[in-house]
Specification:
Shape: globular
Number of strands: 17
Structural class: alpha/beta
Number of helices: 17
Strand content: 15-25%
CATH topology of the largest domain: Rossmann fold
Helix content: 25-40%
Bound molecules: iron/sulfur cluster
Radius of gyration: 22 Å
CATH class of the largest domain: Alpha Beta
Largest sheet: 11 strands, mixed
Distance between the termini: 53 Å
CATH architecture of the largest domain: 3-Layer(aba) Sandwich
Length: 426
């Protein structure tokens, strides 16, 4: 059986690194058909300036487009659908991606969110609750989709790179639904109907620490990683930065969907070796719950997404000075057959994630109360808000006032950034 090829190039100049990485795969002309329509899909989902590493670096976007033109495609379109509540065009402007694309000769820049010409695609053998997905015709009819993610640590998915970046091809309603079902399985269901045939990952200054937004920390890494197999690419990147593959649940979902290979023996590395570029990144989401002995965690059967989210919530409690105030409570993640022994009830029992629904039923039958956080995994601030406010999440009262909610989130993020900065300088 032929191996999946992943090329790794270490360097300093994006243009040369992208070209060299593509050459290790046989050159751009062997990957992109002459006269074809090519979609470039960066990670431009949030308003983050280039130096923040929240989005793919403009230098990489420019280098990728310049390399693609060498294959003589008929047309290159840059397309993105920013995160829920974010304005795609503004994100592309703030991140410098729009300017980079125009400098490289691409003026057809599309906001997937507002595209009216959609086609409904049925998911065969769905693994999540999603049965069909509406996608823009121009994406489905394109000859190539070139996925250009940046590597970032991710509060609810451990990390984001090639596989997760494709989540940014859907419009807000389906994006929201994906977060209310099993997100990892939903991501792989999406890949089953729309597949990027080439991924070019930006690891020049990836984001470590509390990613994927402004609370993360950009770090000089100096690599471009390219593959036609997004699973092999992501698995290789994990090996380059010291993230144990077994700690990331969505590799299993991706392998089951036949999207690519994880096994080292089935991947051929070209260019630089993993050993040559190896540099462990700060992955605070995987430290374990022993770091917070004053809280009672019941985390058996919980996947890394809920565990990562909870770890971030605990770090946030500590940094924002609310850790001591809430200690002694019980926090439950993952499927449970029985009510854990000795738990507190009422507002001191927090059930996080859809996996706890069976336990929720048992507690209802037993007449016990609790706080419940919906989602799989829940949205980022929700477990934190559940602990601080002792209210079910999402808190509908708050959600009906989006401006107040956003302001709260922004204020908390600003304070968190300030505290992280102080911590770093100490
Ligand atoms: S609810 Fe949480 S633990 Fe359960 S599958 Fe979803 S993310 Fe994983």
């Amino acid at each position: 059986m032929s191996k999946s090829i992943v090329s790794i190039v270490k360097g300093t100049i994006a243009k040369k690194m992208v070209e060299d990485a593509l050459n290790h795969l046989g050159g751009v002309k062997s990957l992109i058909k002459e006269g074809s329509t090519v979609i470039v899909k960066p990670n431009g989902g949030h308003e983050g300036p280039p130096e923040s590493s929240v989005c793919t670096s403009p230098a990489v976007v420019k280098a990728v487009i310049e390399a693609l033109w060498k294959a003589n495609p008929k047309k290159i379109i840059l397309a993105e659908s920013a995160a829920i509540g974010c304005d795609t065009m503004k994100c592309l402007e703030v991140s410098g991606i729009k300017k980079a694309a125009e400098e490289a000769g691409v003026y057809d820049i599309r906001d997937i969110k507002s595209d009216p010409d959609l086609i409904r695609k049925k998911i065969e053998n769905p693994r999540s609750a999603i049965r069909n997905i509406k996608l823009p015709r121009f994406l489905l009819e394109a000859d190539h989709i070139v996925n250009v993610p940046i590597f970032k640590t991710h509060v609810s998915m451990v990390f984001t790179c090639a596989l997760k970046n494709i989540k940014g091809v859907v419009q807000d309603p389906i994006h929201g639904t994906m977060h209310l079902t099993n997100l990892a399985a939903a991501m792989m269901d999406l890949w089953s109907v729309i597949r990027a045939d080439l991924s070019i990952a930006d690891l020049i200054r990836p984001l470590e620490g509390y990613g994927p937004h402004s609370t993360g920390n950009p770090v000089d890494f100096g690599c471009i990683v390219v593959s036609q197999d997004p699973v092999a690419l992501d698995a290789t990147v994990c090996r380059m930065i010291g993230l144990p593959i077994d700690d990331v649940d969505y590799f299993k979902a991706a392998s089951e969907r036949g999207l690519g290979v994880v096994d080292k023996d089935k991947i051929e590395i070209r260019g630089n070796s993993i050993e040559e570029v190896y540099k462990p990144l700060h992955l605070p989401y995987l430290k374990g719950f022993a770091a917070w002995p004053e809280y009672n965690f019941h985390i058996e059967n919980a996947c890394s997404s809920c565990q990562g989210l909870m770890a971030f919530s605990m770090a946030k409690l500590k940094l924002l000075g609310l850790y001591d105030k809430n200690k002694g409570i019980d926090i439950v993640l993952g499927r449970k057959k029985d009510i854990p022994e000795g738990v507190h009830f009422g507002k001191d029992l927090i059930l996080v994630g859809d996996c706890t629904k069976a336990l929720k039923k048992k507690l209802d039958a037993a007449g016990e109360s609790y706080i419940f956080v919906v989602g799989c995994p829940p949205g980022e601030p929700l477990p934190y808000w559940a602990i601080v406010d002792r209210k079910d999440q999402p808190d509908l009262e708050l959600f009906q006032q989006p401006k107040i909610m956003r302001k709260r989130l922004e204020d908390e993020t600003d304070l968190l950034l300030e505290k992280l900065k102080t911590q770093k300088n100490e």
